[in-house]
Amino acid sequence: QVQLVESGGGLVEAGGSLRLSCTASESIFSINILGWYRQVPGKSRELVADITSDHTTTYADSVKGRFTISRVNAKKTVYLEMNNLNLEDAGVYYCHADEVWATVAGQGSSPYRYLDLWGQGTLVTVGS
Questions:
Q1: Residue 52 pLDDT > 80, yes or no?
Q2: How distant is the alpha carbon of residue 116 from its chain centre?
Q3: Using 50, 70 and 90 to split pLDDT, how confident is the model at 110?
Q4: In the sheet that 18-24 helps form, which strands lie side by side, from edge to edge?
Q5: Exposure on the CB side of residue 73, measured as CA atoms within 13 A
Q6: How far apart are CA 1 and CA 94, in angstroms?
Q7: Cα–Cα distance between 93 and 40 in angstroms, integer?
């Protein structure tokens, strides 16, 4: 009922491009900051990019100039355009929302606040 669902991962050659998407479930009607995080085996999850509800963006230094994060609030969707991919970009990409408001089934029509919501992740593999 209250979920973020990612898609768009896959295998690409070095220098190629991918577009990741993350869409909030129907019950969510308001989202604050949306972000994309990457995790590789043996390392912690790291911020790749995020975007506020007013479309202010932040990027990790390693992707600056190559990746673009965007959101369409009416579609409750955030995107990550990844260009000129290299081996360092590979990993599981997770969608994240710091704060959302959603309706709650079974508890009337009153909205509820959710914090720190994660998607299930989508795998990006980069070959040579």
A1: yes
A2: 12
A3: confident
A4: 4-7, 18-24, 77-82, 67-72
A5: 11
A6: 18
A7: 9
